[in-house]
Design goal:
Order of helices and strands: HEHHEHEHEHEHEHEHEHEEEEEEEEEHH
Radius of gyration: 24 Å
CATH topology of the largest domain: TIM Barrel
Number of strands: 17
Distance between the termini: 8 Å
Strand content: 15-25%
Largest sheet: 8 strands, parallel
Helix content: 25-40%
Mean pLDDT: 96
Low-confidence stretches: none
Structural class: alpha/beta
CATH architecture of the largest domain: Alpha-Beta Barrel
């Protein structure tokens, strides 16, 4: 928890004092635990929380979180729950806007956010839809726009800087064409974690802090300044000696070329340990030493070669940590840290530590 706050403060230090921070806690706070992380962020004065769907927002409300919560992709059939739980729906299409209006039973003010598509081509209004959007909003003045935002497609890749700057340019133009039609202030935000680092001049009123908060960044220099917010560890369940020429695990894919000391760890692909890491493609850390995976990762267990490691049953085995970071694991299996963090199943116990 202390490391997470340290990361938050690092990014805050890159911002103007007036720039608001929306902390992303979608997908179970990137796998770490939604309520506990959200509560910590609330105590450390972030301005907003971001979730993916209505259910995630309701969970936080039921847990007592009072901060404003933006739902990035509210299901059109759940707008009544969005309103009931005082969540801020993101409206990204004329269809979703009309559905929201249809679901409102009275004319009490309702705060919304608008998403603009500036090149991601995922969700959001295109520029040619803005006139109709404004026409509908003007006919329904009980809808108040709290923020307008867009999403950068490649803020972490300098090869696409020209594209990113063009996205920002389009966002400035479209958001101004909308906000100029209303006599109240509207927050604007387009920067994500890597955007804060690489395009800091375009903070607007708010930024959205996601993976950087959890200690992961594609910029190697910034990564050195962040702290690992999570480790995954298990314990050695059993140690046995496997004789030369015997096999280990399913399909006999692990073969002992000499006598081996093998430790079995109770974590497997049902917990989120990617099976691609089998057969020496990843090392866990036991007592400060690397222990390679032997054979195929099982549903609930994995075997490690601890022949040259002084260890015993009950010792900790770190799946990822400072010594074997999740960013390296991601490279091994050709993915990104986001996917790994969010893949660990609910049966993996989350323990929150704070000094």
């Amino acid at each position: 928890m202390n490391n997470l706050v340290s990361n938050l403060n690092y990014f805050k230090g890159l911002l103007l004092p007036t720039t608001k921070v929306m902390a992303m806690v979608k997908a179970f706070s990137y796998g770490l635990g939604t309520y506990e992380v959200a509560k910590l962020l609330e105590e450390n004065n972030v301005n907003y929380l971001g979730v993916a769907n209505t259910y995630e927002g309701i969970e936080l409300r039921n847990a007592g979180i009072k901060l404003p919560i933006m739902v990035m992709k509210p299901e059109v059939d759940s707008f009544d729950l969005v309103i009931e739980n005082q969540l801020t729906p993101t409206i990204f299409s004329l269809f979703s806007l009309k559905k929201l209006i249809d679901s409102i039973s009275d004319s009490n003010p309702l705060v919304i956010s608008l998403k603009i598509d500036t090149g991601m081509n995922r969700l959001g209004f295109y520029e040619n839809e803005i006139p109709e959007l404004l026409s509908i909003l003007n006919k329904n003045p009980f809808l108040k726009i709290e923020s307008i935002f867009s999403h950068l497609a490649a803020s972490d890749n300098s090869d696409h800087n020209e594209f990113t700057l063009n996205q920002i340019k389009r966002f400035k133009y479209i958001s101004k064409s909308i906000s100029s039609q209303f006599d109240y202030s509207i927050d604007l935000h387009i920067l994500n974690s890597n955007g804060i680092i690489n395009f800091n001049d375009y903070q607007f009123n708010m930024v959205r802090l996601g993976i950087g908060l959890y200690g992961v960044c594609s910029d190697t220099q910034v990564q050195k300044k962040l702290k690992c917010a999570s480790t995954l560890k298990s314990k050695i369940a059993q140690i046995k000696i496997v004789k030369k020429n015997e096999s280990i695990g399913y399909n006999r894919s692990g073969l002992a070329k000499s006598d081996l000391k093998i430790a079995t760890i109770p974590v497997g692909y049902a917990d989120g340990l990617n099976r691609t890491l089998s057969n020496g493609n990843w090392n866990m850390i036991i007592n400060g030493h690397k222990a390679p995976i032997v054979g195929n990762i099982c549903m609930d267990m994995v075997m490690l070669d601890v022949t040259n490691i002084d260890c015993k049953e009950g010792d900790n085995a770190f799946v990822f940590s400072d010594l074997n970071p999740i960013s390296e694991m991601a490279k091994k299996i050709g993915t990104i840290p986001y996917e790994i963090l969010t893949s660990y199943s609910p049966r993996v116990k989350r323990v929150f530590l704070q000094n």
